[in-house]
Amino acid sequence: MDFVMFLIISTEDPASERFLYDPNRPYRISKHRTIQHTPPSTEMGLVLAVSDYEALSGLITFLDLAYPTTSSPFSIYAIQLVELMGRASPVFIEEKDVEEGEEEEHHERIRSRRVDQVQSAFKLYQENRDECVTLHAYTAHAPKRLMYQDICELALAKKTAFILLPYQQERLDDAAPTELRNSGMLSVNADVLAHTPCSVCIYYDKRRLRNAVFRSLDDQQHSTSLSRVRQETYRFVVLFLGGADNREALHLADRMTVNPDITLTVIRFLAFNHEGEDEKEKKLDDGVVTWFWVKNEGKDKVSYKEVVVKNGAETLAAIQAMNVNDYDLWITGKREGINPKILEGLAEWSENHQLGVIGETVAGSIFASEGSVLVVQQQDRTWDICCLSVSSSILLDSPALEKFTKDSVAP
């Protein structure tokens, strides 16, 4: 005799209630939202979030060098974050709505010179990259502790592959030497990294890479159009230590290989005698590296080499042995899935959770590199897989299910 069983979860059961809604993970999803899983020759969506013009300059520089094309365009959702003071209610504004009728009132109520400067830069970048970039501009007025919500909600709603953030550090303000500049913005990056529905890229701009868009803006827009022709070749390097974050970083770097102004070097770090390797991670790493090299080995401006190390000290020594100022941009994964043997002894050095151990190493003053740093964190889907197993135990242990099962099989 056939029968159908319906699973009923009682919301009076605290375990069931936690499964139904976890306020600490409201933006996590099971679908892939990564650079790696964005098909080639398709539009890639990203959220760009900045609080000031200075930070925006670096991010736009990176995006320009990332080289969106007509066949692989970018759809950018650009948010300017404005700290909300006092008891005012948070406001999230799409700039096209302002342009369509409330410009004067909007200026009087909220906008400032700083907001106008960033929004003008958004508009200029869109105009000069119109054939390969679609930019949607927003302004979010919120307390710093809630800013990550606007960023994550937009990324979730627009199904973007990654979020691009400027590296944040607290430093003394030139205008007020006793006050910290960007105080509190560190927590915004940390909260985005913890709650993101997609991958995240943190860009540490050291000003070595300069962008024609911002030269034009700063020079009072001397020309009406911008050329992609550059005066020099930029040298990028990927430090590939394995794991999901580094695989994501390599996929991003691969998209840059079409840029004729970039030479790319990929250096893969491997543990001596395969010590500490996770078989599954190693297999995934091998697959991505093989794919990358087969695709790019015929290109004169792309090179690949491997370095074998016994511990974190040798990893650090190998990086320091490179001619650090040969590179304009260092690209690496944040941490997830890296063989711990490769980082052995380095973990205690890391105080910066935005960049991870290797990112912090190449960004630090001791390393003395003038190159900018890009650290990549791939979307974390392990929570969703974990939820499936946890939910199974919740269902099996739920008092409501136990009672339902007994009643169902009773004669």
TrEMBL record:
Keywords on record: Ion transport, Potassium, Potassium transport, Transport
Pfam families assigned: CHX17_2nd
Source superkingdom: Eukaryota
Residue intervals of the Cation/H(+) antiporter central domain: 76-206
Protein name (database record): Cation/H(+) antiporter central domain-containing protein
Higher taxonomy: Eukaryota, Viridiplantae, Streptophyta, Embryophyta, Tracheophyta
